[in-house]
User: Which sequence fits this backbone?
């Protein structure tokens, strides 16, 4: 009888732990919000159709959320008089964008399924759909995340990899989040789309030697040595609004825009992988999709942790 009581209690404890921890699943909203994926995909496609750059912006927003204390929509919280979050941290200020698209999606989702779907899940799906809209690979997004009730400006400043990092520092930054060096290179391929501000690559185009001269000269036309910090240039000069492997071809040709980009192909340990991706897009797509699954599963809040925000910009 004592053995039965112990087993019963153990099963109960395991069930309670399972509920409180929760599990992500692609079918998490299949009954509670069956049209969720269609709502988000339609909104993202519309946004990308209006502005191609938005596909990259949504993917980057997802990355900047997940890389700082996990995929919990903390990056979406606005600062208040008593709270300084991640939006205005150094790597994010005047840089990350797409908040209005997430707001639009959240409004549509709330109208269909009030109080059910987290902002963190919306952001994870939108990042995937923005990639697909520009010709990139798809991946299964497990769902069931909940939203944080706080954010950390200090964590954003300290944890997001800077465009000035060398290869060893890049590998360390991603290793600290559980990624392999191979996954780091694959994820860097997201720079096949999107734009960067002059202030992030000025030093490279004027001072570094491992850069193709014509590319450097052309890029300088839009990024003077002084002033113009916020003027933008494409991360992939070849096909800036198509998700493909041209980013890696650019690196082999010494046309990486950021210092951290060209570090991936600079007589170092990742050169061979960059060469492979530059000639084998299927390999890049497969590795990128796999790494994005890992990315989207970083430290999610599940079960009873966090909340389901009604407005992605503020806590309930």
Assistant:
């Amino acid at each position: 009888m004592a053995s039965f009581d112990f087993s019963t209690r153990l099963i109960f404890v395991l069930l309670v732990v399972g509920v409180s921890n929760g599990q992500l699943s692609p079918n998490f909203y299949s009954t509670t919000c069956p049209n969720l994926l269609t709502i988000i995909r339609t909104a993202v496609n519309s946004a990308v159709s209006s502005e191609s750059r938005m596909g990259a912006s949504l993917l980057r927003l997802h990355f900047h959320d997940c890389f700082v204390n996990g995929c919990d929509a903390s990056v979406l919280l606005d600062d208040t008089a008593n709270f300084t979050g991640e939006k205005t941290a150094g790597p994010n200020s005047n840089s990350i964008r797409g908040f209005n698209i997430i707001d639009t999606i959240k409004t549509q989702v709330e109208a269909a399924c009030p109080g059910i779907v987290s902002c963190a899940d919306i952001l994870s799906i939108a990042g995937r759909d923005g990639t697909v809209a520009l010709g990139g690979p798809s991946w299964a997004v497990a769902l069931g995340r909940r939203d944080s009730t706080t954010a950390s400006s200090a964590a954003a400043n300290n944890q997001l990899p800077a465009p000035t990092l060398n290869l060893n520092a890049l590998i360390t930054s991603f290793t600290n989040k559980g990624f392999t060096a191979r996954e780091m290179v694959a994820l860097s391929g997201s720079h096949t789309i999107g734009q960067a501000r002059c202030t992030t690559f000025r030093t490279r185009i004027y001072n570094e030697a491992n850069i193709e001269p014509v590319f450097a000269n052309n890029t300088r036309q839009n990024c003077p040595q002084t002033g113009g910090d916020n003027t933008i240039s494409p991360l992939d000069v070849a096909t800036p609004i198509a998700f493909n492997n041209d980013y890696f071809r650019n690196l082999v040709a010494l046309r990486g825009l950021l210092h951290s980009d060209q570090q991936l192909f600079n007589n170092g340990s990742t050169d061979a992988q960059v060469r492979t991706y530059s000639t084998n897009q299927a390999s890049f797509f497969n590795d990128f999709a796999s790494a994005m699954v890992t990315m989207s599963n970083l430290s999610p809040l599940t079960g009873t942790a966090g909340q389901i925000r009604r407005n992605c910009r503020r806590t309930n």
Notes: The CA atoms of residues 283 and 302 lie 32 Å apart. The chain has a mean pLDDT of 93.
